[in-house]
TrEMBL record:
Protein name, UniProt field: Fibronectin type-III domain-containing protein
Pfam families associated with the record: fn3
InterPro entries: FN3_dom, FN3_sf, Ig-like_fold, RTP_Phos/Ushers
Domain of life: Eukaryota
Residues annotated as domain Fibronectin type-III: 111-203, 204-299, 393-484
GO cellular component terms listed in the entry, alphabetical order: membrane
Record Gene3D superfamilies: Immunoglobulins
Amino acid sequence: MTIFSLLHQSTPPTLPPSERMILLYQCYGADLVIEIPGNQGLDDSFYRLDYYPPIGNPAPNATIASRDVGDEIQFSNGLPGTRYNFWLYYTNSTHKDWLTWTVSITTAPDPPANLTVIPRSGKNVIINWSPPAQGNYSSFKLKILGLSDNFATNQTVAIEDNQFQYMVRDLTPGATYQVQAYTLYDGKESVAYTSRNFTTKPNTPGKFIVWFRNETTLLVLWQPPYPAGIYTHYKVSIEPPDALGSVLYVQKEGEPPGPAQAAFKGLVPGRAYNISVQTMSEDEISLPTTAQYRTVPLRPMNVTFDKKSITENSFKVMWEAPKGTSEFDKYQVSLSTSRRQQAVLRNDNENMAWLEFKDNLDPGKTYQVVVKTVSGKVTSWPASGDVTLKPLPVKQLQSYTDSKTGVITISWKPDELSTQDEYRISYHELETNNGDSSTMSTNQTSFALESLLPGRNYSVTVQALSRKMESNETVIFVVTRPSSPIIEDLKSIREGLNISWKSDVNSKQDKYEVTYTRNDTNDGKTVLTTESRLVFTNLYPGAGYEVKVFAVSHGLRSEPHSYFQAVCKYLGGV
């Protein structure tokens, strides 16, 4: 308790000395204690207390018997922040309503009401309050106390001119403070104060990136705020909230803090996600650092090629949409040998997609086609397939026959604008449904057709091959010489010769050409026949003849088989 004042004392001579000093104490707010030292408590004496304004307890002009006073009179329920005038009268058998004491005193005001703190940023807050609900006031005082560990910044601010709002500046982001608000009136400060604890907004985290991503996971890495300020955790959120944990809390580590990370799992492939990172201090959270990232979309399936569409300079590639749920906008199709990328828009109504390549392609060359799905700017893992274009047909295909062996050799030249690694030779006997045919391969540009049967008409085709992809055919027709017949029997008859022969079973011939030549005159004759025997007549008896038999097939004669035979002379009968 504090003694406020003893303004005036008037004591009649008949009063005992012990009752001549009256002390006034103020307790809390508008409660007062009027102490009367040495009160004797006589039965025929009493006190009358009067005051203005007439609000309080006891009531104004209350009369209190001296024996009931003891050493003090307690005054309560007065108005706070109010100037009171008190008068104390004493009455006994000698004196009546003797003014023994008077004083003027101002009661302490009530503290402000409705104290609120609104953080505006990491460094500034706005403090609002209302004046006391009752009583007077002239100004206010604010005390700002720092409560964070290892952190103390205290300041006192006097508020004048009926202001009920004040902005505190230059605080530490994320720090916790207590504001104490006092009311002042007539030099008196409120005994109590109104207080609020508050935390400033922590600083916003630095930039962040995706450190790792796949079809269902995003791992983000971010920098701490700068300057760091005060904070304890990061709040990391993802939208849409598809993750197994869509809001994560990551504790701050290190001092000064280093980079931090968080992983979101169970996401939808190819979907765009908005990720935000915020720092937290107590119940305050910073403004977010935000960015949008996408998971990797699922890749396409089954890259194939339409074989009918493959030409020397074009092809058509086809593929299937990804299997499973995946978000993507389009397909990106490219050749491994080119940086050019072509886009094919997604069609939700079709499971298959295709694209035709027909520019700047080389015959016979092998291309790898790479197909990816694209979501935003994020591409899937590739699906690929290899296709080889048809090489160009060979040129200058020709044949020649060895005059000694009769073997036909063909030769050709590849097209210089084409790529090929081998050649396919096929031959087929014409003019029959089940004739002789065969196919063989070589990496040379000539080939001896040693297995052709004699006396045949063949179509021979040559195709350039590039990784088994065939060019169009280049065709040539060749005819083989028939095999030589073998004269089986040559007999001399009267004025003639009787000849018979046979042919190789593997040889075919259209006819035979038979000639004879007289050895002494070189006279001769040639006969064509389809039979395998022949009789020459009207020959000169006794002359010798050389007989030759040729097989003829498609205008080609075989090597002859010759025989010398004399015609018997005719001897007349007796």
